Amino acid sequence: MAVRSFHRSVKRNFRSSCCEISGAIKLVIGENSETSWVVRFIFTILGYTTVFLPCYVLIHLSKRHNLHTLGGCQWRLLRLLLTGTTTETVSEGDVAPAERVSNVESKTLYEKALSLFYCCAGLQISYLLWGVLQEKIMTREYTDGDKTERFTDSQFLVFVNRILAFFFSGIYLLVSHQNVHRTPLYKYSFCSVSNTLSSWCQYEALKFISFPTQVLAKCAKVIPVMLMGKLVSQAKYKNYEYVTAVLISVGMSAFLLGSGGDKKGNNVTTLSGAVLLCGYLIFDSFTANWQSALFKEHKPSSIQMMCGVNLMSCLFTSASLIQQGGFFYSLSFASRHPIFIMDCLLTAVSSAAGQLFIFATISKFGPVVFTIIMTVRQGLSILLSCLLYQHHLSFMGTLGVFIVFLAIFSNIYYAQQHKKRKLDTIEISSSKV
């Protein structure tokens, strides 16, 4: 009892200290200052650290003393954290082959076309709705009588999205047949942190830049991915990939130069938006690479990955929100503006449903079809945002958008042609043998 009361007092003191420090910094910098996002980012990282460090110590001690191999129900959670399963060993016979899990059946052309229509419609509706609501929540004012105010806590939106995605994927796992899970839960934490931070940067960036600018920046994700691959693993790229990167850069430059009338503030604000976009691209690139490594090493299904990452994201974001008082602020805001509750729930539902449609589309039709659908969705998102929120696009800005999407579709086409030539070469060489 004495130990528990000591831990409670330490936690209370830590939370009160964080609130006092946060309040003091906000008084100096200002809640609505152009650089206030830096303070929020620092406290978000500190909140994640309070979860990450104790878990790291627990995992280190457990591996050192083999605590996860002990019998008894109390060690099952620890075993799940370290091995990904509550049993000590998983026989290879328990692992379902990929062919059995996917269970791809032969379908008629009509059934395939109908399935593609459902996937395409699901992706477009989910993410178009998500984009519109995301921009509304972060950039528009909510009115309560004579008082108007904006919602500022990006992390609460990330938490709501993640917890609903966790429930969606968890229910899907319960009603469907999946591989035996063998991925240690703690390994999800790395891409979970980067995933939540990329989403955080994405929401925060909307305070400083327009939604169309953010969408085009996402299209430019190929550039940091190529640079990271070149620096980290000395990856080699085809000529058309370099041309794609250059065209995207030219298109982005033309769009930004042609959208001067849509700026939301001074140079500092524009710089803050650019920094947050860079943060989004960096964190998102790490997430994709880490998840790819987990798929290769432990071979989880996509839904298992979705459930595991969102579970860890819920733990990190909830701990940070509790320490910063984010739940109190968000619930207080929701009580003053009931429509915010509906916007928030619709955003979370559309995001979670969109993730399920992503996995369904990739499993049924492959990544190329999925990429084309999502590229079209990005173009429609820009068009819809400009229509609803009156973003101005000059001729140069429109030309920049056209160049970016032309580069993306060209990259998809040449990648398919290269893959086809490679397969033809393999077939010819095998037929000669």
Count of extended strands: 2
Strand arrangement, major sheet: 1-2
* Shape, principal axes of CA atoms: globular
- Give the structural class: mainly alpha
Largest sheet: 2 strands, antiparallel
What share of residues is helical? over 70%
Strand residue percentage: under 5%
**Rg result:** 24 Å
Low-pLDDT sequence parts: 24-30, 89-106, 261-269
H and E order: HHHHHEEHHHHHHHHHH
Integer average pLDDT: 76
Distance between the termini: 76 Å
- Number of helical elements: 15
Can you walk through the features of this model?
This protein has a domain at 11-86 and 108-206 and 307-362. 79% of the residues lie in helices and 1% in strands. It has 15 helices and 2 strands. It has helices at residues 2-29, 36-65, 76-83, 98-102, 109-139, 154-175, 185-205, 211-219, 222-233, 239-257, 267-298, 302-324, 326-336, 338-389, 395-432, and strands at 142-144, 147-149. A two-stranded antiparallel ribbon has the order 1-2. Helix 14 crosses helix 15.
